[in-house]
Amino acid sequence: MSGKVHVMDHPLVAHKLTILRDKDTSVKDFRELVSEIGMLITYEATRDLPLTTREVETPIAKTTAPTLKGKKFAVVPILRAGLGLVDGVLRMVPSARVGHIGLYRDEETLEPVKYFCKMPKDVAEREILIVDPMLATGGSADAAIGFMKEYGCTSIKLMVLLAAPEGIARIQKSHPDVDIYCGAVDQRLNEHGYIVPGLGDAGDRIFGTK
Ligand code: PRP
Ligand code: URA
Q: Which ligand is in closest contact with the Cα of 201?
């Protein structure tokens, strides 16, 4: 069975994505929106975190109330554009550790090339949320998930802002155990492997490099 695709069905996400798509949105606004949407998708991606209970004394009475079970969590951005989402995830899960995978897409072959990797020591015991704004051909996410599995990780989710149907199909085929959380699913890829209508090059827009 393939992994599930959870598409955010929320007016705030839809509204913010439209501003992101706008080619005239400034680098400052783009960066802030990526972080905000990241926070909102994290809300959905953490919906199944296990809870336990603890005693708490309110100003009125003692009670037993829910608290996170303390499952270990790590967010893994795919460099560079994935960095733009880390802050939003950490605002929701402040105790998360952060691992980094550096990949860039070879512009000719569209295949990912790895240039950096640094993980928390106990990463294999953690729930992993890989983050990247764009799931286009799926090559980068496919490789990143593969690396995390080589580290021994068994619970992996992928969070993106925009996904192309081609990328979703690739991940569902290579990694049927991985659920995808995304802001929206766009129409297709163009001949350069860009998502249509998309938002352009996410890394360049976050870091202002074009
Ligand atoms: C972009 C994006 C993804 C990748 C998606 O990164 O952030 O990592 O492309 O494309 P794919 O699904 O076809 O692999 P890019 O390679 O442009 O590097 P950058 O983050 O450094 O800009
Ligand atoms: N990477 C991007 O940044 N944008 C796309 O549309 C495809 C890959």
A: 2
